[in-house]
């Protein structure tokens, strides 16, 4: 009897693992990745941190409009004024398909990650 060796590249193992991840789990991971890309280490997203994401998703106002819009977003998500959005509130926002929400498809979230990766240092890594 001959023993057969199975040779797998790291990419192959990643593909195998991803097949067993549910769509809901993939979405949670995607949302977490976007949140972490925006977060500057506080665990909360403040107006300046959320702005690149808002712009990517179609917000076309100027800085003063965003500064008045963001507190309304905090209020809608039941965040303390000025506290910013935690990961849970951010997930609620991008999963909310109501008129007040900001539902983002997996493609929207992936697109943001790709754009912010190729544009490092532009929006997401700016100092507060």
Account of the protein in words:
- The structure is a single chain.
- The protein is 56% helix and 0% strand.
- It contains six helices and no strands.
- The longest helix has 16 residues, at 23-38.
- 20% of the residues are buried.
Question: Could you name the key traits of this structure?
Answer:
128 residues, mainly alpha, 6 helices, 56% helix, disordered C terminus
Please render the helix and strand layout as text.
Layout: H1 10-19, H2 23-38, H3 47-56, H4 63-76, H5 87-95, H6 106-118
Helix pairs in contact: 2-5, 2-6
Compose a concise summary of this entry.
The protein is mainly α and 128 residues long. Helix content is 56%, strand content 0%. It is globular.
Low-confidence stretches: 12-16, 121-128
Beta-strand share of residues? under 5%
Overall helicity:
55-70%
Oligomer: single chain
Structural class given helices, strands, pairing?
mainly alpha
Largest sheet: none
Task: Give the overall shape.
Answer: globular
| Overall mean pLDDT | 83
Number of helices: 6
Q: Kindly state the number of beta strands.
A: 0
The ordered string of helix (H) and strand (E) elements is HHHHHH
Tell me the radius of gyration.
Answer: 18 Å
Give the distance, in angstroms, between the N- and C-terminal Cα atoms: 66 Å
